[in-house]
TrEMBL record:
Domain N-acetylmuramoyl-L-alanine amidase: 105-249
Molecular function as annotated in GO: N-acetylmuramoyl-L-alanine amidase activity
CDD domains assigned: PGRP
GO biological process: peptidoglycan catabolic process
Record protein name field: N-acetylmuramoyl-L-alanine amidase domain-containing protein
InterPro entries: Amidase/PGRP_sf, Amidase_domain
A UniProt-annotated Pfam family: Amidase_2
Length: 260
């Protein structure tokens, strides 16, 4: 199978911004270049009459038939959750223009409600070297020694976000301050990556599209839940005893600088 049009093979983030949906495996090139299609193709005049905006390039047919997208992305009202499931995670990420896949049952998945959202912990999966998000089932269902979910969110190599759980997830272990960074109080993000080399400098070992999406998604979560950048830590920074974890294998100073 190939994409319906070679012109529709575009970056997944560009596709989401146009109101389209990306499908992997149909386009040549990098993992972030996927087949973009639109489920709301309509005449541009009819679209603007609805108060919406037309985007070209992802609908078949004459040039007046374009992808019609509502002007207003979901409006996220900042909140500070207390003892609740984070059922707005998908809308928060989608509202930032990111590609989002909702894993069936995520809104009720978790070991308990979240006590709060005071911190965000950045991880890598240390998973297989290839594939979009091969760690999905482990993150969702866990391992023999640790039941899933292992994090609320996953991030694929294409920059697509996987929303896996709305409740407490086992990603943090013991931390420097469990009231901020513990499982009950911090959102965990498991980004697909081998973690090699474990050099802790820059992000040159990560696909640029995945890195940019990581930054954009964390910024959206911070805005929605009022999490300061100082409370966005790498697992390697939050875990105790020091040296227990090495993830993520990029510079957290660079990551935090990109958030501000
Ligand atoms: Zn970790």
């Amino acid at each position: 199978m190939t994409c319906w049009s070679t012109d529709a093979c575009i970056d997944v983030i560009e596709c989401a911004a146009k109101g389209g949906t990306s499908q992997a495996g149909l386009c040549p090139g990098a993992a972030n270049i996927q087949c973009c299609s639109c489920s709301t193709c309509m005449d541009t005049a009819a679209c603007s009459a609805n108060g919406s905006i037309s985007y070209s390039g992802i609908c078949s047919g004459p040039s007046n038939i374009q992808c019609c997208k509502s002007k207003s992305l979901p409006v996220i009202i900042p909140s500070e959750p207390v003892n609740t499931m984070l059922t707005d995670l998908a809308d928060i990420l989608r509202g930032a223009g990111l590609n989002v896949v909702e894993e069936t049952g995520w809104k009720t998945r978790g070991h308990d409600v979240m006590s709060s959202v005071k911190g965000i912990l950045v991880h890598h999966t240390a998973g297989p070297a290839t594939g979009e998000y091969p760690s999905l089932l482990i993150v969702r269902d866990g391992r023999t020694d640790l039941p899933g979910p292992l994090s609320q969110l996953g991030l694929g190599r294409s920059g697509t976000w996987y929303v896996i759980a709305a409740g407490k997830s086992y990603h943090a272990g013991k931390t420097i301050n469990d009231t901020i960074f513990g499982n009950a109080n911090a959102i965990g993000i498991e980004a697909e990556g081998t973690g090699l080399p474990a050099d802790n400098t820059g992000h040159e070992n990560w696909p640029e599209v995945q890195w940019q999406s990581y930054v954009r998604g964390v910024k959206a979560l911070q805005a929605a839940y009022g999490v300061p950048t100082s409370n966005v830590l790498g697992h390697k920074e939050a875990a105790v005893p020091a040296g227990r974890k090495i993830d993520p294998n990029f510079s957290m100073d660079e990551f935090r600088a990109a958030l501000d």
